[in-house]
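Many introductory courses stop at the sequence. We go one step further.
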Amino acid sequence: MTLVYSIAMKRLATIEKELGETPLQAIERYRSDAALAADVPLAYAGRLDPMATGKLLVLIGDECKVQTRDHALDKEYTFEVLFGFETDTHDVLGLAELQKVPTPEAIRGFVKKYTGTITLPYPRFSARTVGGVPLHMHTLSGTLHNDDVPTKTSTVYRLHIESTRTIRGDELLKSLLEKINSFPEVTDERKALGRDFRRTDIRARWHELLDTRADTIYTIVAFSCVASSGSYMRSLAHAFHGLAFSINRTKIGRYISLPFGLGFWLCQY
């Protein structure tokens, strides 16, 4: 369901971004669903990666002129971390390598360690710019050294383990390929570098790792997180020594932190 509301002449909409969609594709779908004219300006606040789903804040008309005030909104997520692997994108849409699985005690320790003010490197595959060039373009071109990757300081207000499940290697491969294949092939020549999200190489690598591990049991842990603007769940998953198997943004709004671990949402969208 799409929620549209007006506050002091502000025009905003909250929509659900689907798996595989870019934010631009999501807001253009909203334009069509809402029957908005082509000349009505649309923008979004709070980017979601193609492999992430959930709440996307759409800015309509004059709201686009003041979008910076909407960028600082806190967010709430549920996300799953797959252990046993890591990728260069920190999610399933990356080139994978095997990774040592942390103990349950270590995973609980990550929750404590990464609650509060944290500083983590931006994902190398992200829209953050260095010298005016997005990090993902630097990464694909080989023009950025590890020491040049900027870091992001943010606040994690709340981080909980919600559940743990296991999955066989053959079922995991099937699920991974469904996610990777969830959006149409990208053929735009302007995006020739890293064409089609490198999906041919990524599929081949997952097959290489999992075709001979069909009976192996892997662990997926679900977390909930309330964090300040600009926090990457992919970065948290990588810090946990895993990768983001799924990311869903469930709320957008300001989270007011109170003593004794309490808090509340202000202007929840």
